[in-house]
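New to this. Please check this record:
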Amino acid sequence: MTIKAHYQEEHMSQAYLTLHELLPSQELTAALDAGHLTRKRHPELPLSLYTYTRTCQYERVWNEVTMRCRGLVADDVTGEIVALPLPKFFNVGEHEAGQPYAPALPDEPFEVYDKVDGSLAVIFHYAGRWRVASKGSFISTQATWAQRLLDGKDTAALVPGVTYLAEILYPQNRIVVDYGDRRDLVLLAAIGRDGTEIPLADAAAGWQGIGSVVTVWPGMPLAELLALAESNRLPGGRAATGTDAEGFVLRFASGVRAKAKLSEYVRLHKVLTGVTERDIWRGHGIQRFAGLPAKQVAQALGCSAADIEASEGRPLDALLEQVPDEFDLWVREVIARIEKGVADRERAIDEAYAALAPLTADRGAFARAAKALPDAAVRPAMFQRLDGRPTELMTYRSVRPEAADPFTTDEEN
């Protein structure tokens, strides 16, 4: 009997778990009402996807329900769970710190997997075909990309009833690690209908021709693994930067998982997912107006003089020295847009002031004409020009980015 036939026979004979068998219904409802879980309905099928929210992550509201809802998909009619991802798991440091949601790790052997830096794909069989959701959506950009890829593959060896979990990798979905032009679904794990994890080697046999399988590193003591992560090294001693690798996933014999990330990855992740266009605007502004009093610049840019002094007036330069080239390019693009906005606004001020120049000897007439200008954005600058004061700081403040999107987002982390 083939591996597929064995698992197909085994899993087809099992009943699906239902949502309320897995999770207490009152606690599920309470988590949804509190905004710790979100339920997203499929646009066409009677399916709902349950996953924890950013509020849950920020407030660390980790319990039986929120930890289990990490892209879980249930049939709205029957209540059957048709896709059952792995529970949320945490950094080794959280376990060692005694966090209530992260008890002490078991004293048992563990396997070491590569921590792949992409987006989670939840792959399941429903209504006659294999389907893909991301952790938070049936129709996200990542889920749509993965669905197209999967639709072009031979899925005959996959076992209906099994949830396959993979990492979505393609250039436009880069988080921190640079995988180049790689386009892949990296198999991470497989879960049976009853919630039992299938051995990775067995699941991998049916994954051939679809994508790759997560790298399994040689076993080692926990202290040795953590030392590698802290020193930014891979097993075997090869050095790795935060753009080379994310870190490791530990899978203990009992199925408990934890993760250990390279220290450089953690630093870069914080920068790349935390620095916004508004941060770039502020940092560039501090450097651009370095010749003005710090208090005046701070007031215009929404920071404190102490912040400016602490950065020694060069916050943007300090940031760019620590990040990959791609981030540098993004920063330059943001700055170019800001500078174009300033130049366009200053040109409009020049033109408006030129039109009012004949009235500069009569302040009252000048004021009435300035108030009547069709472009309300240039009106405040007219009296500054009349009094011989520069307008660029005011103009710079006016082009502050409305959007506050970071270089990249990472919904999984």
The chain has a mean pLDDT of 90. The longest helix spans residues 325-356.
